[in-house]
Amino acid sequence: MPSVLPEGEPVPADGALPPSAFEGAAARPLGFYLHVPYCATRCGYCDFNTYTASELRSSGGVLASRENYAEALAEEVRLARKVLGDDPRQVSTVFVGGGTPTLLPAADLGRMLAAVRSEFGLAPDAEVTTEANPESVDPAYLAELRAAGFNRMSFGMQSARQHVLQVLDRTHTPGRPEACVAEARAAGFDHVNLDLIYGTPGESDQDWHASLDAAIGAGPDHVSAYALIVEEGTGLARRIRRGEVPMTDDDVHADRYLIAEERLSAAGFSWYEVSNWATDPAARCRHNELYWTGADWWGAGPGAHSHVGGVRWWNAKHPGAYAQALAEGRTPGVGREVLGAEDRRVERVLLELRLADGCPLDILAEAGAKAAARAVRDGLLEPVPYAEGRAVLTLRGRLLADAVVRDLVD
Ligand SMILES: C[S@@+](CC[C@H](N)C(=O)[O-])C[C@H]1O[C@@H](n2cnc3c(N)ncnc32)[C@H](O)[C@@H]1O
Ligand code: SF4
């Protein structure tokens, strides 16, 4: 979730949605994203909407205390129930993200989930994930989460090498994420993800091999591997500007992506989105699939974004402003946009083209369709699915995904 909010039209104080948002809703899955905006320390590369205790104190976030957070969030879930009215859908996925959700007591995460369950009901096969920092959980904590109804864990491993973790300001030690996977399995979690980052300044090809081997060896059923993005305004961007650490280049990122694909596929993982691999279709993150396929989700928490039937809105970014709105009985939503048909088409191309299933050719405009034909000739799109009416990236296309998407979206 980006930390800079877009401009938009105001949200009505009661959060009401236009009738168009409900058209065809019964056919779309409904998910909940629950944001937890707290971290023990801030990692130098991170641009997410999260606050350390001292950042909260210095920005006057009195109302924003961690102790009251689960209750504020449950209040937004109750508001969601009012806004969605008699919408009969049960919730098919819940994803608690951060920040560091596991800085809160497990009972608080359970309380947040219980609010969704009591207001909407969870589908019998609902996927319920929380992100966790490896140093912030232990077997008892994981057992409590499992008992509360969580069934998928996502750990921020990032790297297996101490010097890389240090550049990223991570506080866990090498080996801890792998132990987390074993602890999560022992606690009864069916699905476990490890997040990795490649292209950190100072990381070598050997370091990246070691990180992939350690991740695979731990036995998760899902791996996300992201190229390090140096976000403007972060500590890492400042260190690179001052020349304290080198910048990695695009060629290095491409080489590391190829290494990831080779290692992960040899270990039985298949890509299903450019940065995501799973051991089988049942191990895919259904919550993320819901974002990528334009389904409906309610994002609760400071700065969280929601999307229901082509209406997109976003909440006040600061935890204090967020809690204040809810305490006054107002929506925490501060801006929204109603997407037109062309916006929705563009969005579909942007998101679906990054999926292994690809995007249907018939949603491309004339210039995009010509670009797709060129991309097949250039080896960027797979010829067989293309002949059957779908644009699916080749491995080379995945390396150049942003450029291919830019061409096809026209
Ligand atoms: C919301 S974040 C953090 C979850 C958790 N707090 C943690 O750090 O383990 C989810 C994932 O996004 C990825 N990420 C965050 N900032 C990134 C950046 N600047 N470049 C690449 N990946 C990033 C990391 O892999 C991280 O685990
Ligand atoms: S712990 Fe996770 S969310 Fe918090 S600052 Fe680090 S990367 Fe960002």
Structural summary, described in words:
- The chain is built from 16 helices and 14 strands.
- 39% of the residues lie in helices and 19% in strands.
- The protein is globular and about 55 Å long.
- Helix 2 packs across helix 11 and helix 6 packs parallel to helix 7.
- The mean pLDDT is 95.
- The protein starts with 29 loop residues before the first strand and ends with a helix.
- With 410 residues, the protein is an alpha/beta fold.
- The site of S-adenosylmethionine has 16 residues, from strand 2, strand 4 and strand 5.
Coarse structural class:
alpha/beta
The CATH homologous superfamily of the largest domain is named: Aldolase class I
Count of distinct strands: 14
Total helix count? 16
Stretches where pLDDT is under 50 for at least 5 consecutive residues are: none
**What string gives the helices and strands in order?**
EHHEHEHEHHEHEHHEEHEEEHEHEHHEHH
Distance between the termini: 25 Å
CATH class of the largest domain: Alpha Beta
The profile of the biggest β sheet is: 9 strands, mixed
Radius of gyration computed on alpha carbons: 21 Å
Which compounds are bound in this model? S-adenosylmethionine, iron/sulfur cluster
Summary tags:
globular, nine-stranded mixed β-sheet, 14 strands, alpha/beta, three-stranded antiparallel β-sheet, 410 residues, 16 helices, iron-sulfur, 2 domains, binds iron/sulfur cluster, binds S-adenosylmethionine, TIM Barrel
Q: In brief, what are we looking at here?
A:
This protein has about 400 residues and is an alpha/beta fold.
How is the topology of this model organized?
Elements lengths: L29 E7 L16 H6 L10 H16 L6 E8 L7 H15 L1 E11 L6 H10 L3 E7 L3 H6 L8 H11 L4 E8 L6 H14 L3 E6 L7 H7 L8 H17 L3 E4 L2 E3 L7 H7 L3 E5 L4 E4 L2 E5 L3 H9 L5 E6 L2 H12 L6 E2 L5 H12 L5 H5 L2 E2 L3 H5 L1 H8 L2
Parallel strand pairs: 1-2, 1-9, 2-3, 3-4, 4-5, 5-6
Antiparallel strand pairs: 6-8, 7-8, 10-11, 11-12, 13-14
Bound molecules: S-adenosylmethionine and iron/sulfur cluster.
S-adenosylmethionine binds next to strand 2, strand 4 and strand 5.
